[in-house]
Amino acid sequence: MLTTGGAGHISSTVASARIDFAITPVVLDNLSTGNAEFVEDRIFYRSDIADTELDRRIFAEHSDLDAATHCAALAAMEESVRGPLAYYRENVAKTAASLENLIEIRPPAARPVLTIPVTLPPPR
Questions:
Q1: What is the 3-state secondary structure (H, E, C) of the chain?
Q2: By CB neighbour count within 10 A (0-12 exposed, 13-18 middle, 19+ buried), where does 36 fall?
Q3: Contact call for residues 29 and 44 (beta carbons, < 8 A)
Q4: Given pLDDT bands bounded at 50, 70 and 90, which one contains residue 110?
Q5: What percent of the chain has pLDDT over 70?
Q6: Cα 40 to chain center, whole Å?
Q7: Which of the residues 23, 25, 31, 47 could staple to 15 if both were Cys, CB 3.0 to 4.6 A apart?
Q8: Residue 4: which of 95, 97, 93, 96 has the closest Cα?
Q9: Is the pTM of this model over 0.85?
Q10: Residue 59: how many CB atoms within 10 A of its CB?
């Protein structure tokens, strides 16, 4: 199963749980906020989620991929307030592009599983 944003805290835990169930995680992350240590023992591709050519390569190299969990996102609330358009581009537009890629590449088996990062404000 492909995990986008798989070098983050939550998504790397999701990938670890997959290993526990004998499912090999394939991780795609640009490491803009992720941690490279979380993917050291994983199949890992460092790139943007909207990279069409890489998406095609990943699915060609891993013909057993039949689903994806989307965890890639920017999630810092203060930054999103300062730069909402950048957050829209990264979290909405690129997610849509990624989903379009997955559906085009593997239409019969593409079963996107969407996850939404949640950021809570710091306690006052």
A1: CEEECCCCHHHHHHHHHHHHCCCCCEEEECCCCCCHHHHCCCEEEECCCCCHHHHHHHHHHCCCCCCEEECCCCCCHHHHHHCHHHHHHHHHHHHHHHHHHHHHHCCCCCCEEECCCCCCCCCC
A2: exposed
A3: yes
A4: very low
A5: 85
A6: 16
A7: 25
A8: 95
A9: no
A10: 21
